[in-house]
Design a protein that fits this description.
- By secondary structure, the chain is α+β, with helices and mostly antiparallel strands.
- It contains five helices and six strands; from the N terminus they run αααβαββαβββ.
- The chain is globular, with a radius of gyration of 20 Å.
- Strand 5 and strand 6 form a beta hairpin.
- A four-stranded antiparallel sheet has the order 2-3-1-4.
């Protein structure tokens, strides 16, 4: 069952629009087995959300995205978890990662303008207790995200099969 589970997760991660019937046919199992497995994965919080990748450059007034390096002092008994939790509850925050290397947390935020993000950093993030410093990097252009190439043509690297 573990192999089927992994296959379903990989297929859904690549294209969340696949129907249970399509998945069943692709994996040579019953639709009912796929439906039960997906329900179980959702109950276990393995599948948290179904996601769409959007090319915001093709939309008027796209959001501004920034990556913020955050240095923090870990809290006794909680380490980095409590401060990360405080940070990820802000509506502007899209992702938070604990990092190795020169900083502790990587925080991805979105705002309507660069000024919105600057205000968020200055008034909400940097002023938090245990935050020792931040460095903000604005995303200028996306080339690839979640395995999707934004500019240029994606090449089909499949082998041509002829009868």
């Amino acid at each position: 069952m573990g192999d089927l589970r992994k296959q379903v997760l990989q297929l859904l991660e690549n294209d969340s629009r696949l129907t249970q019937q399509q998945l069943a046919k692709m994996l040579n199992v019953s639709k009912e087995e796929i439906a039960a497995l997906i329900q179980q994965l959702e109950r276990e919080k393995v599948i948290l959300k179904y996601h769409t990748v959007i090319n915001w450059e093709k939309v008027p007034s796209p959001p501004v995205t920034a990556l913020i390096e955050v240095n923090i002092t870990p809290q006794r008994e909680y380490g980095f978890d409590k401060i990360a939790e405080r940070i990820y509850h802000f509506s502007q925050v899209k992702s938070v990662y604990l990092m190795s290397g020169g900083y502790d947390l990587c925080v991805i935020v979105e705002g309507e303008t660069m000024q919105d993000i600057a205000n968020f950093v200055a008034h909400k993030l940097a002023s938090l207790e245990h935050v020792n410093g931040t460095r903000t990097h604005f995303v200028m252009k996306r080339y690839k995200e979640d395995g999707v190439i934004f500019s240029g043509e994606e090449k089909d690297n499949r082998l041509v099969v002829s009868p």
